[in-house]
Amino acid sequence: MSRFLPISYATRNLGRSRSRLALAVGGALLVSLLAMAGAGFAIGMDRALRASGLPGNVVLLGAGSEESVERSEISPANAGVIAASIPGIAVLDGRPLASPEVNVALTVVARDLPSAATSGERTGLVRGITPEAFLVHPQVRLVSGRAPEAGSGEVILGASAARGAGLDPAALARTLHDDGTGGPEVLVDTRTFRVVGTFNAPGTVMDGEAWMPLNDALVLTQRDTISAVIVTLEPGTSPSDVTDFAQRRIDLELSAIPEPAYYASQSAFYRPVRIMVLASAALVAAGALLGGLNTMYAAFASRIRELAMLQVLGFARRAVVASLLQESVISSLSGALVAVAVALFALDGIAIRFSMGTFGIRIDETVVAIGLAAGLVVGIAGCIMPAIRCLRLPLPAALKSD
Amino acid sequence: MNSLLRSVPITWKNLSRRTLRTTLTVAGIAVATFLFSFVESMRDGVRRATEAGAAETRLVVYRKNRFCPFTSKLPQSYERTIQDVPGVKSAVPVKIVVNNCRASLDVVTFRGVPDEGFMEDHLQGATLRSGSLADWKLRSDAVIVGSALADRRRLRAGDRFDAAGVRTLVAGVFESLDAQDQNVAYAHLGFLQETAQRGGTGGIVTQFNVEVTDPARLEEVAAAIDERLAHDQFPTTTRPESAFVARAARDVIALVRFAGIVGWASLAAVFALIANAIALAVRDRVRDHAILQTLGWTGMDIAWMVVLEAGMLGAAGGAIGALAAYGAIAFAKLNFTTEGVSIGVTSSATVTGIGILLATALGAVAGLAPAWTASRREIVQGFRTA
Predict the structure, then answer these.
(1) Cβ contacts (< 8 Å) between A355 and chain B: which residues?
(2) Does the beta-carbon distance from A273 to B103 stay under 8 Å?
């Protein structure tokens, strides 16, 4: 006979002990939430770096500095040579899409913050740019004010960079006028700059940057070299054309890396940190699972006689296991669903400033699937072994048990 | 005393009778204690690197408002200016090249130091695992590598080592207790300056390591150095080395601070696990306790037995977890590096001991409530409940 117990048997059993139900739901909630927090951080960091690189862009930086654009130094004259010499660079309104840039970590802090908050702890990434930067980085959208003008001591801030500097990006966007007036002053390094605009570049590292005119950045940092030139290629042009150029012109001491590959290497750099975060979350989840198993063993052990009775009534062992599985999975998935809701409302989009960058915790469909899968694993693993142990007893012995 | 000791064999039998429950509980406690010990080792590393000792004599002179070796550029000629500041014993120009300024666990740091004198003094407290200082002096591109970096990159004396755009030859590997040394490759200053300048003339360094004559005058000398260079083209910020590390590694410190919450949450998990397991055990043994009371055991004896069981679970799980963490940390040789500054995570007997003691104590405390319940139950009520 292959009869299965009705699902109502499982659901009604759930209400027999409220404390046990709360423990099962709470345990699954904890495991799912930890799994999502860990995965959300790892995926958020990885995606922020990967989304920062566009497939049609190539980064030209100093040979030997491939691991970090902040370390790179090349002659500003190279930007012109690159724009003129490399075939296949996209052109807009007669201007080649080649953006010379300076990338440097400096203090960026609102000038009117209390002195304790301006003690040099608010480090941000500053990018010196030309107007071409907006063309090669289309992820960046100016949301208020205007672009900064060279020689005027002006800067624009990404939303995360504004927060990092001690400013509220929403309030900043409201107070800024289209002509760039109304913005506060910020201290960048030792100099005062006026904020004339804010930009969004959601999900990319640029959201955590302050942008200023290239020449202002060179003067501020007392350097006569730029960090890199980013070029956008015509559709159909292979990045290898740029790589070949860099290898041919050894006098320029350049290295060319497709932008996605550059940011993939940055993501790989952080891999040990991500592994550590995931391992910690997995360990805490494993601890919670072991505690949950203990409870489930005790819960099922107290029902041995009831489970034996079901078999006497003609239900096969697999039918009993299926019913226990339903009970366990319903409670654990309930916990996982609550965890998903908590993660979506409380964790999604949280910006974490780490190591000169800002990364957002992302609770997307992959992370939600991981959370639900973790809850499902808790439900199945927490039920199968205790169920098998209880059903292993011969029927007469099980019926006589306490 | 006798009544306390007679509980031990019964408690042991109780634990071994329920192998599965005991195993699951001990495993859970071990996992939580592992995490706690790991996090505490990280915090220990931060403490050691950033806490100033009374005898601290070293200052670090860095370019003002710069936060990464790529951007801190000071003329080597400042060496004489710094030497002239009253209270300065010595000033060593250091060029630092890292493959990335950001924080991670696999950062390569080259430190360019003067050819003569510095390494002899610096390696006095260290031991050379392989190679020799003479080999380092013979070649301009030679490096002496700290043990953690050497192990991570599988380097031995005689190997070629290319990283951060710098091509070197490993002249030796040394062991040091200082986290800053474990994770660096010491190169010749001139070689690193030329490499960083891509064939230029060099003459630029990242920082000066300054020794002062009197530890009590550390802050005074630091202020004097900054004052003397304040109106120069490259103004400086001078800090005691521990403060310099604390500022550079602030991201790592923030990460470790957050991890501290995980550590304390792990201890809460230990408490919950033991409390749950003991509550289940006491519920199962109501009749056993009633029988023991019939045989003359007092309520206190029963309570002691329950607390002992909880403590034994905590001790066993704590010992497994803390010792596993000790072994894992010793094996992994983790070093967080950011802006050329390292924070080492090293295993320590103290942290291991604290982990075991806390797990045991928490176990005993977690057993108090069930013990109280068990000790208060009447014999008749115990038999009826069963």
Answers:
(1) 102-104, 251, 338
(2) yes
pLDDT per residue over B130-168, tens digit each? 888 889 989 999 999 998 889 888 999 999 999 888 899
ipTM of the complex: 0.73
Report A:180-199 residues touching B (Cβ under 8 A): 189-190
Rg of chain A over all Cα atoms, to the nearest angstrom: 29
CA separation for the pair B192, B239 (Å, rounded) = 24
Same domain assignment for residues A150 and A199 = yes
Is there a contact between A297 and B105 if contact means CB atoms under 8 Å apart? no
Phi, psi (rounded to 5 degrees) for B174: -125, 155
Give mean pLDDT, residues B117-137: 83
B182, part of any domain: yes
Q: β-strand B184-188 against B207-212: which pairing, if any?
A: unpaired
- Please enumerate in sequence order all residues whose Cβ is within 8 A of that of B216, keeping only pairs 6 or more positions apart, or say none: none
Cα B173 to Cα B147: distance, rounded to the nearest angstrom: 6
Residues 6+ apart with CB under 8 A from A116: none
| CA separation for the pair A159, A157 (Å, rounded) | 6
Searching chain B, which residue's CA lies closest to the CA of residue A354? B251
Q: Which domain holds residue A325?
A: 7-50+271-400
One domain for residues A115 and A212:
yes
> Is pLDDT at A224 greater than 70 in this prediction?
yes
Contacts of B263 (CB under 8 A, 6+ apart): B35, B36, B38, B39, B40, B43
Query: Residues A182, A149: one domain?
Result: yes
Please say which residue of A232, A257, A290 terminates a domain.
A232
Scanning B252-271 for CB atoms below 8 A from A yields: 254-255, 259, 262, 265-266, 269
What is each CA distance from A215 to A102, A153, A219, A222, in whole angstroms? 9, 11, 6, 10
Place of tokens 């019913």: A323
Query: Do A149 and A283 fall into the same domain?
Result: no
* A78 and A121 both lie in a single domain: yes
Q: Indicate yes or no: CB of A106 within 8 angstroms of CB of B101.
A: no
Report yes or no on B241 lying in a domain.
Answer: no
Q: What is the 3-state secondary structure (H, E, C) of A153-199?
A: CEEEEEHHHHHHCCCCHHHHHHHCCCCCCCCCEEEECCEEEEEEEEE
- pLDDT tens digits, one per residue of A364-392: 899 999 999 988 988 898 888 888 878 88
CB–CB of B339/B62 below 8 Å? Answer: no
Tell me whether residues B255 and A354 touch, CB distance under 8 A: yes
**How far is B194 from B206, CA to CA, in rounded Å?**
13
Residues above pLDDT 90, as percent of chain B: 31
Higher pLDDT, B327 or B344: B327
* pTM recorded for the entire structure: 0.77
Selected residues 303-362 of chain A with any CB under 8 Å from a CB in chain B: 353-357
